[in-house]
Specification:
GO molecular function, one term: hydrolase activity
Number of strands: 17
Domain Amidohydrolase-related: 62-422
InterPro entries: Amidohydro-rel (IPR006680), Metal-dep_hydrolase_composite (IPR011059), Metal_Hydrolase (IPR032466), MTA/SAH_deaminase (IPR050287)
Keywords: Hydrolase
CATH architecture of the largest domain: Alpha-Beta Barrel
Pfam families: Amidohydro_1
Strand content: 15-25%
Largest sheet: 9 strands, mixed
């Protein structure tokens, strides 16, 4: 494999790769991708461009970059703290215990660390669920990190992690008004690489009246909405999706996260209104207290979900593990060993190719950016990755989708391009060493401020 320096750096021609386009008209093919001015100019075979930088894609897979539709980026410096935590332990340790001590610089470095981890593993878009809006400066620091890292980001403005218990589970506080400033002054361009959404609590985490007011605010500002629902026993009692449907607030501008204990009827309501879903399958199988991944039940309701990491304090921040966890839980369903909500006969199943679609084009649809990314379609922005199929862990790659899902990891990701800009090349991230040293210092400061011993 070789990369040749071009006379013009904004043109890239990848030759002879196995293209998993996620475009229904193009399908999968062995061919070429021409990138120019940050966009996919052509997909085909035997393409030529004398001005382009040539990338030999022979024996490699090229696909759209993965899209993570729900990650709490601010926790990037707290990576791998509690893989055995329950949901309540996570809330106590991170949101309540450490969140109140975050300074803007901690948010900045946490977001940078999460973004770089994402890029290294082939995630080119992240929907940053930012419930660390402790001040306007905290939000500005989070946004600045996304611009700096080079990732495509949907910044989902949320609530503070100061007085965290006052902002969830029946809260009467309305969404922080600083979202207006961000919309009008910071992220007003919906075509930019970093855009704005609203992370709302909904009727599961706030009162019904507050939920309605927050939704009206987001729609007044022209923002898509994300909402955590179906969280354990509390979610089963609240039935947030049903409440929204009955209040005439459920609509296609909403992405619902988890849905673990949402009823099958609620999932059908979601589908009927054109709303989308985000399954954090790795987190949901690791963390007791949430419920199980709703992937198969969503398919039964007519919803093709997106996938997400959630928090790196519990699980690895790559999409490979998320895809494998979803598949592993499906096998428990097939074996009759799944949770009580997944024991209905005849649940539809998915395969590796479906999982790659969930992690790419369905993610773009959930973020409302499928007009510009999520597939290798001429005219879309050039967000793509190249995976080395000649690495020993993937050989002989008889079924490419299955090989990537079953055996892939960040080390197999050789090339990462976001909006036409190379972010990882020859398997090496463009930047990162200094960031991760700063992340360690941030972690130490936070533990000291909270009066906690550093984990041994």
């Amino acid at each position: 494999m070789s990369y040749h320096q071009p006379p013009h750096k904004d043109r890239i021609l990848i030759k002879g790769a196995y293209l998993m386009t996620q475009d229904d008209e193009l399908g999968n093919l062995v061919g070429d991708v021409l990138v120019a001015d940050g966009r996919i100019l052509q997909i085909g075979q035997d393409l030529r461009d004398d001005e382009a930088r040539l990338v030999d894609g022979t024996g490699n897979a090229v696909l759209p970059g993965f899209i993570d539709t729900h990650r709490h980026n601010w926790q990037g410096a707290l990576r791998n703290l509690g893989p055995a935590w329950t949901y309540q332990e996570y809330r106590s340790q991170v949101q309540i215990g450490l969140g109140q001590y975050f300074e803007p610089e901690d948010v900045h470095i946490g977001n940078l660390a999460a973004d770089l981890m994402s890029l290294d593993s082939g995630v080119t878009t992240v929907r940053d669920e930012s419930h660390i809006s402790n001040s306007p400066e905290h939000s500005d620091a989070a946004i600045a990190a996304h611009w700096e890292s080079g990732i495509r980001a949907v910044f989902d403005h949320g609530w503070p992690s100061t007085e965290a218990e006052q902002w969830q589970f029946g809260s009467s506080r309305t969404h922080p008004d600083d979202i207006r400033r961000i919309r009008n002054e910071v992220l007003s361009d919906d075509s930019a690489r970093v855009t704005l959404n609203a992370m709302l609590r909904g009727p599961e985490l706030s009162t019904a009246d507050v939920a309605a007011q927050d939704i009206r605010l987001a729609r007044e500002l022209g923002l898509r909405i994300s909402m955590h629902v179906g969280l354990g026993e509390w979610g089963a009692r609240q039935q947030a999706v049903r409440q929204l449907a009955e209040s005439k607030l459920l609509a296609s501008d909403m992405t619902f996260i988890h849905l673990c204990t949402s009823t099958d009827e609620e999932l059908r309501m979601l589908a009927a209104h054109g709303a989308t879903a985000s399954v954090a399958s790795a987190l949901e199988v690791f963390m007791p207290g949430l419920g199980q991944p709703a992937t198969n039940r969503l398919l039964a309701a007519g919803v093709r979900p997106s996938l997400s990491v959630d928090t790196e304090t519990i699980v690895s921040g790559d999409m490979f593990g998320v895809m494998r966890a979803a598949l592993a839980y499906q096998q428990l369903i097939i074996a009759g060993a799944a949770g009580p909500m997944d024991r209905a006969p005849g649940l539809p199943t998915f395969d590796a190719a479906d999982l790659i679609a969930f992690a790419t084009i369905e993610g773009a649809r959930a973020c409302g950016i499928d007009d510009r990314t999520g597939s290798l379609t001429p005219g879309k922005e050039a967000d793509l990755i190249m995976v080395r199929l000649d690495h020993t862990n993937l050989l002989p790659a008889t079924n490419v989708a299955a090989s990537i899902v079953a055996g892939g990891h960040a080390g197999n990701v050789d090339l990462v391009v976001v909006a036409g800009e190379v972010r990882k090349e020859h398997g090496v991230l463009k930047k990162g060493d200094a960031v991760f040293a700063e992340a360690a210092a941030s972690r130490d400061r936070l533990f000291h401020a909270a009066g906690l011993p550093l984990p041994s």
